[in-house]
Write a structure and sequence with these properties.
Radius of gyration: 19 Å
CATH topology of the largest domain: Rossmann fold
CATH class of the largest domain: Alpha Beta
Oligomer: single chain
Structural class: alpha/beta
CATH architecture of the largest domain: 3-Layer(aba) Sandwich
Number of strands: 6
Shape: globular
Number of domains: 2
Strand order of the largest sheet: 1-6-5-2
Distance between the termini: 42 Å
Order of helices and strands: HHHEHHEHHEHEEHE
C-alpha cells in the first residue's frame, strides 16, 4: 500500500506539478509536503554552548567550560519566570519557510513533519506532568482557524506520553503581533495578557510550555508568570525554532 501511495503521488505531481517551497525544484515525491528531501534534510538542530536558562546560543565554543551555570546578559539583568527554555532549531532556511507556510498560509499538512522535527531534537525532555501550548486569543483563533502551537504540542505530547492541557491557559487580550514591536513595547503589549482558568490543575505541577518560535522570549515568559502565579512548581519551555 505505501508503494502504491507513492506511485499515486508521483503521478499526481506529473498532472499537477509542485515545486519545493525552499529551492524551487520540481517535486516528483513529497515525503514532507511542499519540500524536497535535500532541503528538509538540511535542517539541523541547534548545537553548542547556550545560556542554561533561556537557551540563547553563545558565540564562543568554550563559553561554559569553566562556568557551566553562566547566564547570558539578558537573563542576569531580568531573570525569566520560566525554569529553563530550549529551542530545537535555528529559525532560518527551509525551516523558516515551513513555519511561515504553516502559520500564516494555513498549510496544516506540515504539522506532522514539524512535530516530528521537534521530537527528534528534544528527546532529553525534563520530567513534566503536563504540556500546554501558548494560546491564541479567541478572535485570532477564529481568523486563523487553528493554533499552530497546539498542533505542535499535540504531537510532542503523544511522543512524550505526557497529558496535554489546551484550554486552561488563555490569552485575555487580542494583543498586537509581537513581530511588529520593539522589545520594550513587547513587554507592555503582553503584560497581564495571560491567565489560568483552573489554577488547581497546575498547582504544584511541572509544566512544559510549547510554542513555534522563540524571538525575545517575552511571550513564553508572560505565560510562565501566569502559570507560576497559579502555583506551578516549574515551567519549562520548548520552541521549534529560535531567531538568531
Amino acid at each position: 500500500m505505501p508503494a502504491l501511495a507513492t506511485l499515486m503521488r508521483r503521478a499526481l505531481h506529473v498532472v499537477l506539478p509542485v515545486d519545493c517551497s525552499s529551492c524551487g525544484v520540481s517535486l516528483d515525491e513529497d515525503p514532507v509536503p511542499f519540500f524536497c528531501r535535500p532541503c528538509w534534510g538540511s535542517i539541523q538542530p541547534l548545537r553548542g554552548p547556550a545560556c542554561p536558562r533561556c537557551g540563547r546560543p553563545f558565540a564562543s565554543t568554550t563559553a561554559l567550560t569553566y562556568s557551566p551555570d553562566h547566564l547570558c546578559t539578558a537573563c542576569r539583568l531580568r531573570r525569566p519566570a520560566f525554569t529553563r527554555a530550549w529551542s530545537c532549531y535555528p529559525y532560518e532556511g527551509p525551516l523558516q519557510d515551513a513555519i511561515r507556510m504553516f502559520k500564516y498560509h494555513s498549510k496544516v499538512a506540515l504539522a506532522e513533519a514539524l512535530g516530528e522535527l521537534m521530537w527528534s531534537a528534544f528527546r532529553d525532555s525534563p520530567d513534566v506532568d503536563m504540556l500546554l501550548p501558548v494560546p491564541l486569543h479567541a478572535s485570532r483563533l477564529r481568523e486563523r482557524e487553528f493554533n499552530q502551537s497546539l498542533l505542535l504540542a499535540d504531537r510532542l505530547s503523544r511522543r512524550l506520553g505526557v497529558p496535554l492541557s489546551y484550554g486552561n491557559l488563555v490569552r485575555l487580550r487580542d494583543t498586537q503581533p509581537q513581530t511588529e514591536l520593539t522589545r520594550s513595547a513587547r513587554l507592555k503589549n503582553l503584560r497581564r495578557a495571560f491567565s489560568v482558568l483552573h489554577p488547581e490543575e497546575v498547582d504544584g505541577k511541572r509544566l512544559l510550555l510549547v510554542d513555534d518560535v522563540f524571538t525575545t522570549g517575552t511571550t513564553v515568559n508572560e505565560c510562565a508568570k501566569a502559570l507560576r502565579k497559579a502555583g506551578a512548581a516549574d515551567v519549562f519551555v520548548c520552541t521549534l525554532a529560535r531567531t538568531m
